[in-house]
Structures are given as structure tokens and as C-alpha cells.
């Protein structure tokens, strides 16, 4: 695996394999997207600014494997625009072809109280990155909670043994704030090691993921 420095995402960059997952009534949303430059697949993680991590970042098209769906928001102020100096600031970037070039980006926000009270687990997993909680809400929503600032490697290991999601890095707004933040993953077809610990020695915590994401 290698992490590299990539250019900022142009305003009209082609977004492929983009899936709009959920748009709750409170306006929060998450989506997956893979960005391709025509020669290689690159996954970008962008923040408009540190106080509004998901503000204005909405793909022009959101497509599922079976049908075209609406983008999370159609408001003009939510459209992705280029301000002339690269637009959105790239926070997490990677190029990796180790697992069939299948790279996913998860941008998510959710209500902490909903997460604490939810028991809608569709698949059990282990996480070795310092994330407080990560579960599925409803049928399509993966929600993550992170308390600490910085970057750390970790792994979502599927109990089904059909693969795992590797956490490349993360970004929280502050050390003292519970933040729902963009996360970048790589989908692996390898088997899962439920006893895995990352290099920081973090103890694996029980979380849940959507089974479809690891098949």
C-alpha cells in the first residue's frame, strides 16, 4: 500500500461508481464515490473547511449499480465548485491497486443519540482504529464516530470472512469534540483477522458494517 500526493479534484472531474446511501430528514447524508482520471482510480477525501467537513460537497451524479438516484442535495449552494486554487482542500489521498483498484470513499454525518440507541446491526465486525462507534442505521447508512484528531491506520474486519474495509486515515475537527468526519477506505477481497491490532496497539472494538460493502 502506498500513500501519495495527488492534485486537487477539478470542478468537472468525472465521478464514477458513486452511490448515494441515505438522506435522513435532519439533512445529514453519506455517500460513497470513486474518482477516476481515465488512467488510474484515485480516491479523494475533501473538506471545504475544518468546521464544515461536508459543506458543499455533493457529486453531480449519484449512481447505484441498478439505477440512477438523486444526489443528497440539489441546492445550488451545495454544489461542488472550484474556487480557482483547487477548490476543496484534499485531506486524505491515496493511490492503491493492491485490491483490484476498488477504492471507496465514505463521507458521513449522523446524530450521536441515534447511533447510541440503534441496534440495527447487519454484520458484525472489528475495528482497530481509534473510532468510538461505527454502525449501520436503517438499510443503507454506515455511521462513524471519531473523537481524536490526526491519522491512523486500522481495519474493519468482517465476521463473515468475506473481506474487510481498510481505514487509510481520518480527520477530526478537534481533540475535544465528537465529530462526524469523512473517512477513506479500501475494499479488500482478502479474509479477515478478527484478532488484528493496528500499529498503534489500539484494542479492536465491536462495530457493524453493511454486508454488501465486503462482498
TrEMBL record:
InterPro entries for this protein: Ankyrin_rpt-contain_sf
Q: Where is the composition biased (Polar residues)?
A: 62-74
Return the annotated region ranges for Disordered. Answer: 50-91
In its UniProt entry, what is this protein called?
A: ANK_REP_REGION domain-containing protein
| Organism encoding this protein | Elysia crispata (lettuce slug)
Amino acid at each position: 500500500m502506498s500513500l501519495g500526493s495527488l492534485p486537487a479534484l477539478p470542478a468537472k472531474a468525472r465521478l464514477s461508481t458513486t452511490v448515494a446511501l441515505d438522506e435522513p430528514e435532519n439533512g445529514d447524508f453519506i455517500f460513497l464515490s470513486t474518482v477516476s482520471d481515465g488512467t488510474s482510480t484515485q480516491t479523494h477525501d475533501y473538506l471545504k473547511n475544518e468546521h464544515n467537513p461536508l459543506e458543499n460537497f455533493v457529486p453531480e451524479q449519484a449512481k447505484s449499480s441498478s439505477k440512477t438516484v438523486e444526489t443528497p442535495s440539489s441546492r445550488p449552494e451545495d454544489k461542488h465548485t472550484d474556487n480557482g486554487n483547487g477548490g476543496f482542500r484534499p485531506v486524505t489521498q491515496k493511490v492503491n491497486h493492491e485490491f483490484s483498484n476498488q477504492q471507496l470513499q465514505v463521507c458521513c454525518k449522523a446524530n450521536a443519540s441515534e447511533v447510541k440507541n440503534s441496534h440495527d446491526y447487519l454484520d458484525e465486525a472489528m475495528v482497530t482504529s481509534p473510532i468510538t462507534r461505527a454502525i449501520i442505521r436503517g438499510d443503507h447508512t454506515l455511521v462513524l464516530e471519531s473523537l481524536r484528531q490526526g491519522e491512523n491506520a486500522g481495519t474493519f474486519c468482517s465476521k463473515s470472512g468475506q473481506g474487510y474495509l481498510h481505514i487509510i486515515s481520518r480527520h477530526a475537527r478537534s481533540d475535544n469534540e465528537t465529530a462526524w468526519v469523512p473517512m477513506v477506505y479500501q475494499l479488500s477481497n482478502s479474509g479477515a483477522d478478527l484478532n488484528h491490532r493496528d500499529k498503534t496497539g489500539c484494542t479492536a472494538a465491536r462495530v457493524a458494517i453493511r454486508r454488501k460493502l465486503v462482498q
